[in-house]
Amino acid sequence: MEHLTEIKSEILPPLPQLLQPALLKSAEVFFQCPGEDYPISKAIHLSRLAAFYPKCRECPHKEHTGNLSLEIIERLKQTQLSRASTQNPFTSEGVRGVYLNQINRYQAAHIAGAFSTMLWESLPLKGIAPQKTNLVSQSETTPDRLPVTQEQSRGPSVVIGYDERPSSPDIITGVASALRRNGCRVIDLGLTVPSILSFATNHLQAQGAIMVTGAQFGPSYTGLDFLLENSQPVSAGRELEKIEQISLRGFGRASRQPGSQRTFHPMEAYRAQFQKHFHALRPLKIKIACSLRLVRETLNALFEKLPCELSWVDIPHQKRNLLSPQDNDVLKMQKQLQADSADLGLIIDDDSRRCAFFAETGTLLSNFNVSRFVMQALSREQSSRNFLLDRASLEELKDVPAGWNIHPHSDTLADGYFQMLQRQAVYAGGQSGYHWFKDAVPTCDAILTLAHILAALSFSDAPFSEVLSQ
Question: Is 7 exposed, middle or buried (0-12, 13-18, 19+ CB in 10 A)?
Fold first, then answer.
């Protein structure tokens, strides 16, 4: 028997050793598209390449073109060269990306969940309060009078809102769902602008806020902006990296109990806060360009009882450079002012905070000169003369008036906010076009900026350009 076994083993080698290389060589190779958790066959991979599937642009297997025609392969190369590679959606002030291609409802929900996780981590720890038991009446306790033993703490409250872009209602649906799933109490403002969201966050004493907006990017973009308690902006270097880290590492549910959602309408209270600023103004003719309906309605309501004349210049939702005299919207405002005289012009950007001012001649005014003009007016009204400017403006400011304390700040929204608190400043500005003012909390709002400019102009009858040059 042993002899027969040896003969058989010589004739027939072990089957796995003979067939395994051939099986490996002929086995079908599977591919996997970026962002998907399931493999696809080579045939599907090639069909997606031929159809110019968006995810193929970042696929590590995009060079495996198989038997595709030379024409399709050449078009694939041209498409790859003409399109920029996918960038990190986290910018210096929030999250931005092309709707559906880079950011969809589910990706926005994931980032919103990371933000809510950060809010949960910042909440103070709360345990279960000990229950007082009356020993005399313990035997008479009925099921309806059983002591409550559930935890009394609640999840963070988060204010949400979205802008006028067509993609925003879809993105806000994912954001609200993720927040509720993580136990947050959602307060929905609906259609709004960032400055109104900031006001509502502080007004409602919420722990955070999320604004769905693609402001300062092209019309195909969408994104998320974040606020913390007391309307603190979230920017690079100020908690934004923490949201990114949580979204990359993953997170679980902070609470088994789902959160709630209710609506809130802030417009009446928001407009009422400006009444103390829009008064005792000299008659002025003002031209304003703004694509935000809520901002236009607010200004129309505020100017109804003022001696000023307000007219509008139509501009679209788009990316613009308010620092450039060659920007399309800047050129349009200049032509409007030259064709129809006015005392000043103003462009309010799509984030409702950044703005650019024009003299009566149509000249685009330097933001540094506007900041200096505002500081001169505030130095007459405020006892404190602590101001903040970005470093570029500080280098341009040669002569500092006596009594002024000017400190630098980096050019982010969050740093402007925090430096104002730390320095107890009454104003922060610079070249960017963002103007912060001391209020209940540091506030950056184009409407508030306009109020301070009009109040400062009312001290003199001189034209804007002449007053600014003094």
Answer: exposed
pLDDT tens across the length of the chain (470 residues): 445 445 444 444 544 444 444 444 444 556 788 767 778 888 888 888 787 777 777 777 777 888 878 878 777 777 665 554 457 899 999 999 999 989 999 999 999 999 999 999 998 765 444 444 444 444 444 444 334 333 335 899 999 999 999 999 999 999 999 999 999 999 999 999 999 999 999 999 999 999 999 998 988 999 999 999 999 999 999 999 999 999 999 999 998 899 999 999 999 999 999 988 988 888 999 999 999 999 999 999 999 989 999 999 999 988 999 989 999 999 999 999 999 989 999 999 999 999 999 999 999 999 999 999 999 999 988 888 899 999 888 888 888 888 899 999 988 999 999 999 999 999 999 999 999 999 999 999 999 999 999 999 988 888 888 888 77
Contact present, 225 and 94 (Cβ < 8 Å) = yes
In the chain, what is the greatest distance between 2 CA atoms, to the nearest angstrom? Answer: 121
Residue 6 CA to its chain's centroid (Å): 76
Model pTM above 0.85: no
- 269 close to 444: Cβ distance less than 8 angstroms: no
**Is residue 200 helix, strand or coil?**
helix
- Going by C-alpha positions, the residue among 80, 100, 85, 270 that lies closest to residue 189 is 270
Measuring CA to CA, how many Å separate 170 from each of 161, 222, 357, 369, 441? 12, 10, 35, 41, 32
